[in-house]
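Example record

One chain of 99 residues, shown exactly as stored in the release files.
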Amino acid sequence: MKYRLGTGLKIKDKGETVSLVCPKCENRVKFSVFSNIENRLNSNFPFIDTKNVYFLVCPKCAAVYTVDEIKGKTFETGEKLSIGNFDFKTLKEFHNGRL
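Predicted structure tokens for this chain:
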């Protein structure tokens, strides 16, 4: 399976969360938080829609989860408690149109 975590070339390290339970391996760990930019074309003005994509990586099992952009921006300002166990979202599989 392939996943897309933004369209930018640079992935930025945003720090570590407080101790959370990984849904996959069920260990209590501090997830590493990263961000990337995602650009999308619009048919209306502004023609390019840019947003940040935030994702977390488990240091034990390498599971990857994403969180809402609002939660990621709040975490980036220093609110370590803005990301909790109920904020994890599984990644959507990426289809590039090829079979």
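Notes: The mean pLDDT is 84.
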